[in-house]
Amino acid sequence: MSTATFVLAASSSEVLNVIAAFAGGLFIAGALVWAVQFGMRVQDRELPRPLSDEQPHLPETGPIREIREMREPDELPAPAEGQERLMPYQLRHAGSRRGKDQHRKRWLPGSSGGFGSGGIGHV
Q1: Does the pTM of the predicted model rise above 0.70?
Q2: Number of domains the chain contains
């Protein structure tokens, strides 16, 4: 084989590589165009978006604020001798009630930490 044959063979494989890359690019571009058209058709079938008048809005009294309060468990009374036990439909809706003492207990420096924290305990 002569050098011209090697050059011709090398150049033909480069041409095939360029053609394959171009065909791949065309395939990807066609898939993207199809995906956009498909998305537009799906969006056309959806319900229209709500108008600005139909959007949620704040109440006239203003925003609702968070309420922080101390809660304590609402204990069930133990049934006395001869009384029937309370049934679920006889219970109140909330499992806790507003506490009498609304003062929030804070951590005091020098007092013990959590269990296993390595503190020395109450001082």
Answers
A1: no
A2: 1
